[in-house]
Amino acid sequence: MKRFENKVAVVTGGNSGIGLATAKRLHEEGARVAIVGRNAQTLEEATRTIGDGVLAVQADVAKLSEIDRLYQTVTQELGRIDVLFVNAGVGKFATLIDTSESLYDELFAINTKGAYFTLAKAIPYLNDGASIILIALAPINPPWRRPRTSAYSEAKAALRAVAQTAAVELAPQGIRVNLVSPGPTLTPIYQQAGLSKEKTEDRLKQISTTVPLSRLGKPEEVASVVAFLASSDASYITGEEIHIDGGRGSVISQHFLGNRERHSQGVSLRGANELCNKISSSKVERERGTSRIHAKFDQRESLFSFFRQFGCVQNGRFLYGSKRGKKKDRGRIERYDGQQERGSITCPPLRCMALCGAFLLVTLAALANAP
User: Fold this and answer.
1) Residue 179 per-residue DSSP state
2) HSE-CB for 125 with a 13 A CA cutoff
3) Which residue has the higher pLDDT, 266 or 256?
4) Helix/strand/coil percent split, the chain, to 5
5) Beta-ladder partners of 178
6) Are the beta carbons of 176 and 131 closer than 8 angstroms?
7) Is residue 319 a part of any domain in this protein?
8) pLDDT in tens, 301-334
9) Which parts of the chain fold into alpha helices (H)?
10) CA nearest neighbour of 63 among 81, 36, 85, 84
11) What is the spatial distance between Cα 268 and Cα 264, in angstroms, rounded to a whole number?
């Protein structure tokens, strides 16, 4: 018997890319599938690709009235829902200063509000023991931040709270909620970027250098993980986030640091909350199992501008100054791997400020308690 025999699955954004691959996978494993999208033409093409018995529903999940209509249509045609894959989303990018209110609203309307109410409004139509999977099209809590992604990342990061809260609230009904975070994946979005074929190929090759497995993922590879999470094989998994990124979230590549060399000399970052999103003049060296980033900055830059540019590494150590040159000529972020991992931040100016602040608090407390 197939894993999804006699099950009903709804896939938003099921007319292309990861959504289409997932709908096809669920259909092959016996599910009665409903795909949802805004474009009637691509929905029709998707139904032909998937096969017979697929229900296509044209709807915009950013509009609550259309979400209501979606679930009414699905339950009337197919019955109550066993699997919900919340996949619809949009990716648009701009710097902080260039992000307009309309762009911000669009990103949140689809990526956050749309996903939230797609999940929330499905609850009355879900069977007990159903499975819900949400998607973020990039790691939603990466250890670094890229320029031009502030609004997009904020919208996607909200999905983690939604997924984890829903997992707790729906657990009494046996409903599981999980999240998948794919890395770079070969979907039509790259062909729709407006670049020439040659530039698109160059861009894909460039992206592949940031992935330890040296390639982009396939939609079918994401679909297989979604199918696993949706099945009874994952019956004890809920509230979790699965990264499908070829190891990209675990290793920051030399390409990302401005060097095209292979990732084998990259710096391990999983578990770090902040690292510079760019180091224009840097080098990575391996020495006795230790990964170091040496970042130079000129005398005109203060310690605080250094921190603003590069940040500090959690579970790491910032060493201000070096044996050569003046103290503010050179800085070093040093991360210890494996058993040598340390958790201190050594920075004389900040340490002095912390001591002064503590002294001030003690003094104020003493004055407040004085008769």
Assistant:
1) E
2) 26
3) 256
4) 40, 20, 40
5) 133
6) yes
7) yes
8) 333 333 333 333 333 333 333 334 444 433 444 4
9) 17-28, 40-50, 64-77, 101-108, 115-120, 150-170, 197-208, 219-230, 303-310, 348-369
10) 36
11) 10
CA distance 251 to 164: 25
> In 3-state terms, what secondary structure has residue 347?
coil
Question: What is the distance between the alpha carbons of residues 78 and 369, in angstroms, rounded to a whole number?
Answer: 71
Please list the residues that pair with 55 across neighbouring strands: 34
List, by residue number, the catalytic residues: 152
Q: Structural domain of residue 299, as residue ranges?
A: 251-352
Residue pLDDT, tens place only, 51-65: 999 999 999 998 999
Which domain-ending residue is among 203, 219, 244?
244
Asked whether residue 3 is domain-assigned, the answer is no
| Sheet hosting strand 290-296, strand order edge to edge | 282-287, 290-296, 330-336, 317-320
Which of 187, 211, 244 corresponds to the end of one domain?
Answer: 244
Query: Amino acid letter at 16?
Result: S
